[in-house]
Please model this.
Amino acid sequence: MFGAAGWEVLGADEEAYPEAGTPGGVLPEETDRKSVYVLGVPVGRGAGRRPERWAAQEVKDLADGAQLDLRPVRSSMIRRQRLQEPHWFVCAARSTHANRWVRWLFNVERCVGLHDTGTVLFGSLEEARLRAAAHSVRAPFPRRVRAHNGMRRTGAAESHQWVVKTTALSWTAGVLGIPAASGPWWLALLALVGWTLLTWWCATVVLPFVRLSMAAGDGGQSPRDEEVIVHRRQRGYAWLAALATSGPLFAMTACGTRIFDADTVLRLHLLLAGAVFVTGGVRRLARAGSRRPFLVAVFVAVLPVVVPALGGLSPVLFTFYGAAFHVRAEEIGVADVWQFVASAYVLAISVALTLFFLACWGYVQPLFRNRTLRLFLPIVALTGVMPLTLAWAVTVLDGAQAAGDVAVRQWQSGRAPDYYYGANPRPVCVTPIDSLAELPLFGHRLDPEQVYGSFGVVGGEVTLWDPLSGDAFPVPSDAVRVLPAGEGDPGAVIPRSCRS
Model:
């Protein structure tokens, strides 16, 4: 029964004990027998994060189906096979169809994993074939079964160190593209020399992971005393890996510096480094095994996403930008495409801060495994809310207000302000169609010879900004004629008056 289920009987113990004693002794048919089996249940992909509970449930289901008095006593992981043993994919057996083309197509699909059952087995190839029963197994990469069984497995700490070293060296080599493209010839030469040295150093870091090792074969020797033979071919693989990591970064940095500027390229590198940091932290948090810290972190981190979404996304920017001109967001005429771009910007900043918080939580969460330290988790969560909200306010709100102040200073200096999601005022000349005295100006003064800033037509009214007084007032769009003054492009000169 256990063999049919694909389980291995690791041990069996059967003992007899009397259910009740009689003066004449215990008859054989009155003896109750108790058998204890130690079963090896392979953990499949459907076990999730609770393999012990999943294995116990599998035993209960088998007992219920066979109507046996069988119950699990204890369930535990014998070995963490994911970290130390090869894995195999259970798939359908090879096709025996009469048509060779159908048979060939099925076998090709089988090799690429289209006929996998979804079960992953760990251990040697012989153990995997024994547990697969009627099915077949395939290696993660074909034609290397022996290499798969005998290859060296790296630990988690060693892999992390290798990734950190390679990433740091590659990024440092890539940043050297800035002086190579923007500096004088001698600085470009030094940058190329530095890039070559860092690439060589990166190749030495990668080399231990692509070299071939062969034991000396003497009995009684420790594995530490093995003889390592490094071939030129493996050195070539290390150099190829180093060039594949540092070369594209160096080339993109040099080209980006020539097209844009050094500051933009440096911000791009910082953005990529932040993406690596966030990816590692979120991955740690997702693999922590407990959903509660992840849900708490998501709840705390989603606040800067919910707040702007409840109040609207694009008006958040236009409100603080228009405050510099004393104009409300409802009075600024912005095209739909610019509103979408502004909303996407606010959402991108919010999501970036959310992922950053989740990454930090993933790195800090292992420090609170102690039961006493878990009491401080709410304090840490509330403390994380404050810098997260402050960072969102400084990035989005203060950034929009600073852009409005810069636009006012540009206008006062006689230059058209820069673009800001279609909300920047344009220099215009306003001429009344009928009598000037009949215009509803609500206490404001309209000078046909003065250049005003226009925020577009909203609700049948055009909002004008007076650069002399700094106030804004609406005018009916059907009562005035609005003409552009000057070119209106960012940085263009604004005419002093409409006569010019």
Remarks:
- The radius of gyration is 36 Å.
- The chain is about 50% helix and 15% strand.
- The longest helix spans residues 377-412.
- The longest strand covers residues 8-18.
